[in-house]
Amino acid sequence: MTKFCAAAIIGFRLFVSAEIVQAQSWVKPGELRNKALIDAGLYTQWSIPAVNSRSLAEHPGFTTTHPFDGIVVRLLLDAKWCEEQGFDPNPDDPPQNQQPYLDSLVWSTHTVPYGAVESAIEDLKRVQWGTLTDNFVWYQFRDEGGSPVDLTKQNDWASVQGNAVLTARVCREAELKGIFFDTEQYGYAPMKLGTPGLRRQRGQQWIEAVQSEFPEIRVLFTFAWCEDLDNTAFLVGMKDFLNGVLDGVRAPAQLINAYENTFYYGQSPGSRFTKKGFAGNRTQFASARSSIKSWKRLSGAADKYDHFVRIGMAAWLESDPWDLTPG
User: For residue 136, what are the β-bridge partners?
Assistant: First the structure.
């Protein structure tokens, strides 16, 4: 039986009407067992000042009071290495955002050496985590190094594999649970290249590379097996890659299908995505959980899906009105 693992992609401030609160009972402690609420977005991706591997180490008051079960961390790369590679800082960014993070290069032709992340690992070892026990490292397709990957070229793919091994090593040495893999391909879509068979092969090679360094790793996907994979432009080709991951994954690793579209549930009227709002209730989430379990039919191996895939959902907390990032 697939266990339920609640994972939250947290944006910004939550609005819930009094009418909805009165209609829904509070969650009971028993319902929260074996579940984790992960902060990914708020303070981790868009905030200024940025929260990253170094700032977490330098500000224990943040981690020891942060009211979640885990957080997704961006790893700051060594400034001297970045300078040697010719990465120019964005003058509009604050100082702590001016050098690339590991997640901005993992899907590029830049092979990041261990020396470029060594200080970030040491910083993470100094963090006073408090209640943050289920922590992940951010991992994404967005290429900020200006060197996009062509999956059909072996040299390009070797860089991706090397960076995947490095990311897994960071997780193992810093005692993080694993990788938070944002599978959305905005402006950069490596999964549009190659054949379905090649993409599936790359998925298997990717998870094998990751587990060669960290066999117990957990990989949390923002979009994994779901109906959206076949009809959403920024997810084109991902199903082939994911089926390859499922082909190659071995115990004791876990894959978390954290369906991001549940973040629509509970949005207030007038939000970015709806004028009327989405009511959000237990029935919707229960239905989503059932759907995620049934999506094994979309995978290449239903039996392995049941064995390795856990269930996650997203909750979005709004800003007022959606004004945190430019535009």
Answer: 72, 178
Output 146 or 199, whichever has higher pLDDT: 199
257 versus 16: which is more confidently predicted?
257
Buried b (16+ CB within 10 A) or exposed e, 38-70: bbbbbbbbeeeebbbbbbbbeeeebbeebebbb
Residue 288's SS3 state is helix
pLDDT in tens, 238-258: 999 999 999 999 999 999 999
Alpha carbon distance 260, 240 (integer Å): 19
User: How many residues are there in the chain?
Assistant: 327
Query: Could you count the other beta carbons within 10 Å of the beta carbon of residue 74?
Result: 24
Output b/e per residue, 177-195; b: 16+ Cβ within 10 A: bbbbbbbebeebbbbebbe
What is d(CA 182, CA 44) in angstroms, rounded to the nearest whole number? 13
Tell me the pLDDT tens digit for each residue of 253-308. Answer: 999 999 999 988 877 777 767 777 776 778 888 899 999 999 999 998 999 999 99
3-state helix, strand, coil in the chain (%, to 5): 40, 10, 45
Question: Do residues 147 and 153 make contact, with C-beta atoms less than 8 angstroms apart?
Answer: no
The CATH number of 18-26+38-313 is which of 3.20.20, 2.10.260, 3.30.460, 3.90.1150? 3.20.20
Count the Cβ atoms, other than its own, within 10 Å of residue 92.
8
Q: Which of 183, 72, 184, 188 is nearest to 138 (CA)?
A: 72
The SS3 of residue 220 is: strand
In the structure encoding, which two tokens stand for residue 80, read together? 């001297």
pTM of the model: 0.87
Structure token pair of residue 280: 């959000």
Across 33-75, the runs of DSSP E, i.e. the strands, are: 38-39, 70-73
Q: What does the block give as tokens for 100?
A: 């690339």
Q: The tokens of 62 are what? A: 């943040």
